[in-house]
Write a structure and sequence with these properties.
mainly beta, Methylamine Dehydrogenase, Chain H, 4-stranded antiparallel beta sheet, 2% helix, WD40/YVTN_repeat-like_dom_sf, Lactonase_7-beta_prop, Lactonase family protein, Cycloisomerase_2, 6-phosphogluconolactonase activity
């Protein structure tokens, strides 16, 4: 099932291509794919590793490891360790698991697991590899776990419980922390709370215990009922973009030493859209020229914007349907040539027109993959 690949890909000498480099760095990457493993996920077992050839947009299966509902992944700066949330029910069974990653073989080896206070949906790791940060969507809090010298996770050193509600009586009766994103300089942590329409900002000091403290101001609000979900920074660190799940809107902020200032909010859908929204993920292209965001619900597409390099504001470019519904997380390869998008049934591969930002789908390069919900890349050297 996971190994339904093209014979031309499998016939290539993987090790030979793993050593190939060209201008601008590696052209070969390992793609780590987190999935949902619940009974309705049609047989996914955990985390899958594929090799991606960025000059051709091709994927080749490498390995897999079993773990429960690894719906979001984080990778250390040295690429030696991977952390996966176990997004189980908020009954004490949720947690986060540490893995060792072997770049030579593309295989993962489990190190240990720590329990979470709620059902986690996101994990990030600092550049110094001192701590990881998880967002417990179920539970409405974020947690900090220290990293040992061997990559293992220690017991949580800090739990920050959010409070409040939003205007949506069905989905915002309590906090739902959905992401924990570090600023480019690792001085701040920005946590989007879908349940309270807030982006909470914390000062991060890796040498302190606990390492997080409220910034000034301590939060920035988005529109009532919008449901902030994920964020990404521009490469120059001057702008941050937040996608709001419930209204399928994107807010552009200027960013300066932990302070956010709203510049613009745009709708992802046309005015005549009558369907269901479920905006999910957001990323800026490596060159900083374009922004991409996925919308699930009945839209099932990725929307493209051009970024004004002076103001940081967005201009609509195009929208592209995905092959398969429920497009959640996606990754742009560091060469800027391809986007890989996880959907309910497969991983889509799109080629990027670097001049326009528009996407061209490579249907014959997609891979069958049930409930692919998180994709991360590691350069192969």
């Amino acid at each position: 099932m996971k190994k339904l690949l093209f014979l031309i890909v499998l016939a290539l000498p993987v090790c030979g291509f793993a050593q190939k480099k060209g201008k601008g760095g590696p052209k070969v990457f390992d793609v780590l794919i987190g999935t949902y493993t619940s009974p309705d996920a049609n047989g996914s077992r955990g985390i899958y590793v594929y090799r991606f050839y960025a000059e051709r947009g091709e994927l080749a299966y490498l390995s897999e490891i079993e773990t429960s509902n690894p719906s979001y992944l984080a990778i250390t700066q040295d690429y030696k360790y991977v952390y996966a949330v176990n997004e189980n029910n908020p009954d004490g069974s949720g947690g986060v698991t540490a893995f060792k990653f072997d770049k030579a073989t593309g295989k993962l080896e489990q190190i240990n697991t720590q329990k979470s206070v709620g059902s986690p949906a996101y994990v990030s790791v600092d550049k110094a590899q001192k701590n990881i940060f998880i967002a417990n969507y179920g539970g409405g809090n974020l947690q900090v776990f220290p990293i040992g010298k061997d990559g293992s996770l220690g017991a949580s050193t800090q739990t920050i419980q959010d409070s409040g509600t939003g205007p949506d009586k069905l989905r915002q009766q309590q906090p739902h922390v959905h992401s924990t994103v570090l600023s480019p300089d690792d001085k701040y942590l920005l946590a989007s709370d879908l349940g309270t329409d807030k982006i909470n900002v914390f000062r991060y000091r890796a040498s302190k215990t606990p390492p997080l403290s409220p910034a000034t101001p301590a939060f920035t609000s988005t529109a009532g009922g919008s449901g902030p979900r994920h964020s990404d920074f521009s490469p120059n660190g001057k702008f941050m973009y937040n996608v709001q799940e419930m209204t399928a809107t994107i807010t552009a902020f200027s960013y300066d030493d932990g302070a956010l200032k709203e510049l613009q909010t745009v709708k992802m859908m046309p005015d005549d859209f009558k369907g269901i929204n479920g905006a999910a993920d957001i990323h800026v292209s490596p060159d900083g020229l374009f922004l991409y965001a996925t919308n699930r619900g009945t839209a099932n597409e990725i929307v493209i914007y051009a970024i004004d390099q002076e103001s940081g504001k967005l201009t609509y470019v195009d929208r592209t349907k995905t092959d398969g519904d429920n497009p959640r997380n996606f990754v742009i390869d560091p060469t800027g040539n391809f986007i890989l998008i996880g959907t309910r049934a497969r991983v889509n591969v799109f080629r990027i027109d670097k001049k326009t930002g528009r996407l061209i789908q490579n249907h014959n390069r997609s891979v069958v993959m049930e409930s692919a919900v998180c994709l991360k890349m590691i350069p192969v050297e």
